[in-house]
Design brief:
The chain has about 140 residues and is α+β, with helices and mostly antiparallel strands. The chain has five helices and four strands. A four-stranded antiparallel sheet has the order 1-2-3-4.
Length: about 140
């Protein structure tokens, strides 16, 4: 998923960068697919508290720490592209996610403590696989 940007020129710049398929400009998240087909998909991610605030965007891109937020939301369907199956976890997985999120530092700093670190950390906590994004970066 691409990073969000404020409307106007910043959004156009981000869209252009995303069209180049740059891995470094992606927003990463974890989608939980319960074993039961009737259960709802859950998406977990870490992002700026206000990702469309121009001042916050510039602060983040300049390397400053900004307030972040961990989100856990329901998802109606699995996206058709940009998703990889990375492993299984014991049920009930959502309890493990809550435990992980309660310990997650929400001060966001791009390249040091951002959605990549959150995704790698949560996947490792749930499945035991270390640095899943490093492995996926090499896949088509």
């Amino acid at each position: 998923m691409p990073l969000r940007a404020p409307r106007g020129p910043p959004q156009l710049i981000m869209a252009a960068a995303y069209s180049l398929n740059s891995w470094n400009l992606q927003h990463f998240m974890v989608i939980l697919k319960p074993a039961s087909p009737s259960s709802q998909l859950i998406v977990c991610d870490f992002q700026p508290e206000d990702p469309e605030d121009v001042k916050i965007s510039f602060a983040a891109l300049s390397g400053r720490t900004i307030p972040g937020i961990v989100l856990v939301r329901k998802l109606t369907k699995l996206p058709k592209s940009g998703c990889w199956y990375v492993g299984s976890s014991d049920d009930p997985c959502i309890h493990k996610v809550r435990n992980f999120n309660n310990c997650w530092d929400t001060e966001l700093k791009i390249w040091e403590h951002d959605c990549r670190h959150y995704t790698n950390g949560l996947v490792e906590y749930l499945t035991g696989e270390h640095n899943v994004l490093g492995r996926l970066r090499g896949s088509p």
